[in-house]
Amino acid sequence: MNDITICFTQTPLHLAVVTQQKEAVEALLEAGADASLTDRHGNTALHLAAQQNEGDMVALLLKHKAVADFANVPNTAGLCPLHLAVLSNSLTSLRALLRSGANVEVQELTSGRTALHLAVEQDNISLAGCLLLEGSADVDSCTYNGSTPLHIAAGRGSVKMSALLMAAGADPHKENFEPLFFREDESCAVDKEEEEEEEEDEGYIPGTTPLNMAASSEVREILTGKEYRPGTVPVPVPPEGDMRSLTQESKRALCQALEEQAGSWERLAQSLGLGILTSAFRLSPSPASTLLDSYEVSGGTVRELLEGLKTIGNSRALTILQEQGMSEQKPHTKISTQELSENVMELKLGPHEEGGVCDSGVETSFQNPSLFVSESLCGHMDLHQSPAQAEA
């Protein structure tokens, strides 16, 4: 009963693999499910598992000898599970198949490419390295037209892949079965006598080597034996801001103020240019805290934070930043209350200004928030006074 076929000739085992139900797969195999049955594309359960990024399903299936026997069987497209693992960029599936004894030299049926040819075509260094080091793949394996993986890498101008294959012992002078044609002007220079000799004896027509196919001078240098030296990638230096000057107490108070007002931290993220990370911030127990940490890492400044808070109209957060944040900063970054007040005043837009654009490039409306903040901060208290004086 477990081998009954349904839509698209898929068996329950196929469906259990596709839906990644490991317990169901195990139960079906224990009950005697036929692992040789294929869907309409000729895929066994192992073929389908090899196309998944996670290799757990492949490893589970290969524990059963009845499944492992089909590791080298092609589907209707001529692809074996090993080929599908490479095409799906699944390193774990590839390793599981190699450990189970899958034939690393098995060729797909359309042009005779091995898994190594396919990895080179995708310029996938990790998969090619796995096939060479863990699978002991033949670096000079040939397709039906005699092309090796190095022919492909050289023809596509892949410097890193060419260097890897050369390090594994690839032959840059190996000819394929494609004749190396002369250019038209060179062929015209052949005299009549030589043409007559060729007619009598066709002679040797050379094939094309990886050197002939080298698509760049860098690849040619690698193929002629020059040592490959990867370019030095400069390590990006993170920008330095002054967010570290805020104390933990100030940050906690800011986070509370941002999370109490609905939508406040989301609008602040947009204003600070971090809107694209909003979904990630929501996964945190304290989205506002994660937002401030990310802003600090990106080199954010207190001044820009002030502008962002003013833009979203969160007067409580602005007041917290003014009252608590600055008095506990380090000496070399200390900002007086007066300077902070001046910053707030400088950021305030007049009633005649209708809008603007933040540093992040996000267009926002400033009119209402500016009036709201202006009234809350300036209309009822002098910014140069302490809160106690203002209340008095």
UniProtKB/TrEMBL annotation:
Return one GO MF term. NF-kappaB binding
By which gene is this protein encoded?
LOC115805013
According to the record, where are the ANK repeats? 8-40, 41-73, 77-109, 111-144, 145-177
PROSITE patterns documented for this protein: ANK_REP_REGION, ANK_REPEAT
Organism annotation: Chanos chanos (Milkfish)
Q: Which GO terms describe its biological process?
A: cellular response to tumor necrosis factor; signal transduction
Q: One GO CC term of this entry? A: cytosol
The record's section on SMART domains has: ANK, DEATH
Which keywords fit this entry according to its UniProt record? ANK repeat, Repeat
Death domain: from which residue to which, for each copy?
240-325
**A Pfam family hit:** Ank
Show the segment(s) annotated as Disordered: 191-211
User: Compositional bias (Acidic residues) spans?
Assistant: 192-203
Q: Does the keyword Repeat apply?
A: yes
Q: Which InterPro entries match?
A: Ankyrin_rpt, Ankyrin_rpt-contain_sf, DEATH-like_dom_sf, Death_dom, NF-kappa-B_inhibitor
User: What name has this protein been given in UniProt?
Assistant: Nuclear factor NF-kappa-B p105 subunit-like
